[in-house]
Amino acid sequence: MTRDLVAFTRWPDHLAARYRARGYWQGLPLCHGAEAQAKARPDAAAILCGRRRISYAQLDAHASALAARLAQAGFGRGDTALVQLPNKAEFYMVFQALLKAGIVPVNALWSHRQAELTAYAEQIRPRLLIADRTHPVHGGDRFAASCGGLALALHLNAADPRRDLAHWLDPRGAPAASYRPTPAEEVAFFQLSGGSTGTPKLIPRTHDDYAYSVRESVRICGVTGDTRMLVALPAPHNYLMSSPGSLGVFEAGGTVVLASAPDPQICFPLIAEHRVDMVPLVPSAVALWLEAAGKGGHDLASLRSMLVGGAAFAEATARKVPQVFGCRLIQVFGMAEGLVNYTRPEDPPGTVFSTQGRPISPDDEVRVLDPEGRPVPDGTPGELATRGPYTFRGYYRAPGHNLRAFDPEGFYRSGDVVVRHPSGHLQVVGRVKDQINRGGEKIAAEEIEALLLRHPLIRQAALVAVPDPVLGERSCAVIVAGDGLRTVDVRRHLMAQGIAEYKLPDRIRLASSLPLTPVGKTDKKRLREELAAPVPAP
Ligand code: J2J
Questions:
Q1: Rounded to two decimals, what is the model's pTM?
Q2: Same structural domain, 393 and 497
Q3: 52 alpha carbon to ligand 1 midpoint, in Å?
Q4: Which residue, judged by its Cα, is nearest atom 29 of ligand 1?
Q5: Are the C-beta atoms of 92 and 100 separated by less than 8 Å?
Q6: Which residue has the CA at smallest separation from atom 28 of ligand 1?
Q7: Which of 210, 294, 385, 487 is 20 to 30 A away from residue 67, measured at CA?
Q8: How many independent structural domains does the chain possess?
Q9: In a shared domain, residues 389 and 511
Q10: Which helix (H) or strand (E) segment is 230 a member of?
Q11: Same domain assignment for residues 510 and 414
């Protein structure tokens, strides 16, 4: 058993005491919201997924059945699970079940492949794998066999009935085994970091801290028992889980309407059919929605709030949201590491359109710092550093990286460049971390560069962002290589290592050298400028 799960970096006692005294941390497990609804309004719809309507009673019955079977099979506190499921009701049933049984999951994104899954598995050493046979990595058992210490693999669409997730979720014939969640101050699950390092990092999130961010998000965004939220972005992403996300909907007793992708052709009919009133989107999806809505022919009248976050959102586009969709815009600037900011209903329209909101909690401590780590005055750009009641205190098993990611007072250096207004509202104006934000999907440059350098002909590699009208940014790999390397070889090489498709470079440039800074590091700023410059006419 992975006993060191309890040994994650915690908040110092005096802060933990304050967060409890102020009622932020309530000592309740994350599965509590949906469980309470199963008692209070058992027949209300929790999830609409394709033709299926899953009530709160059913959600809880499925989750309890899986928790009991896992407990009977010897799983419980101290165990970890690697989960990779698509945007289907089973994702929520499984998450609730694992929380109930005190099994700590990593919920991988559907787009993740061998490389990401292996990195997660190496860090948490799962005893349990829950995946879908239709996913390219899980069609066979090679990946499961590569996870040392795995005791059980369950699958959606399984051929073997004993390993069939649907069977394990079936309330009929479930054993009367007992199980319980991990204590609320301990890790409930690991969230995924967008990352800026060579290996994808994991973020320990406790029941207490996560539940607080969810509860407050519900209040700020006005989620109620009548809310019907469309989840069209990846369900395990922190945004869709907690800002206010599915957990927010379950907390309030509303309904999650699932979609497989944020495309208007998929989402608009669902909005009309299910009278969806709230939708969280990334800016690149908003652009597609605006275009499609402009063509008319869709009934989007039920929409009341659109949340937009995850990547830079142009003010001109923000202004179109209420005009075109007739709904309220809520800007959200969040991170899987913790801090989440929202614009508020009482904010003047100019603030809603031009800022990314202000922090959830009065105890979110925000510092805006110059490159030497000194605070800058409001109105001046600087790096955002933060600590608070739901901002983590350290990546899992990454002591060296944590030394750089946190300052001595425990403030997390976000790598985002922001401007703070006197009202506390933040505007995201840039980034100092080595990351590409491709329509909200984060790519750690170092991770891809390390994979590129595994190719025998590649001597140097740099992955940088280039501006893109649709996604905001795309990636470009600039490569210095020996004779004979073609760009198709580079793509093949990366694909052979099994990385998520969104991480494949959109452009590949072969170069004879890379520009260097005075200290001899790759000068990415210069590379970005060169790549963004219009190609001179011949
Ligand atoms: C500019 N950049 C933004 C915004 C996030 C809610 C919403 C989003 C995320 C998320 C999340 C931005 N404008 N409005 O977890 O709970 C960039 C920043 C940030 C990084 C975090 C949530 N909103 N960003 O996007 O962990 O660079 O979380 O540090 O994926 O996205 O990425 P991630």
A1: 0.96
A2: no
A3: 31
A4: 335
A5: no
A6: 335
A7: 210
A8: 3
A9: no
A10: strand 228-231
A11: no
Q: Are 455 and 486 in contact (CB under 8 A)?
A: no
Q: Which residue has the tokens 């800022």?
A: 355
Question: Could you list the residue range(s) of the whole structural domain that residue 144 is in?
Answer: 31-180
Cβ 444 under 6 angstroms from ligand 1: no
d(C-alpha 318, C-alpha 313), whole Å:
7
Average pLDDT of 161-165? 95
d(CA 13, CA 183): 16
Using the mean position of ligand 1's atoms as its centre, give its distance from the Cα of residue 378 in Å: 21
DSSP 28-67: --TTHHHHHHHHH-TTSEEEEETTEEEEHHHHHHHHHHHH
> What's 110's domain CATH number?
3.40.50.980
Cα–Cα dist 304/322, whole Å: 9
* Res 435 pLDDT > 50: yes
Split at pLDDT 50, 70, 90, the class of 1 is very low
Residue 2 maps to a domain:
no
Q: Given this model, what pLDDT does residue 2 score? A: 46
Instruction: Report d(CA 234, CA 260) in Å as an integer.
Output: 8
Whether residues 426 and 455 fall in one domain: no
Say yes or no: CB of residue 336 within 6 Å of ligand 1.
yes
Q: What is the mean pLDDT of residues 376-381?
A: 98
Q: Are 398 and 422 in the same domain?
A: yes
For 107-152, the pLDDT digits (tens) are: 999 999 999 999 999 999 999 999 999 999 999 999 999 999 999 9
The answer as to whether 341 is a domain residue is: yes
* Residue 15 domain flag: no
Q: What is the 3-state secondary structure (H, E, C) of 152-208?
A: EEEEECCCCHHHEHHHHCCCCCCCCCCCCCCCCCCEEEEEECCCCCCCCCEEEEEHH
When pLDDT is averaged across residues 506-516 and rounded to a whole number, the result is 95
Residue 133 lies in a domain: yes
Which residue has 């969040």 as its token pair? Answer: 334
For residues 96 and 63, what is the distance between their CA atoms, to the nearest angstrom?
6
Q: How far is the CA of 308 from the centre of ligand 1 (A)?
A: 10
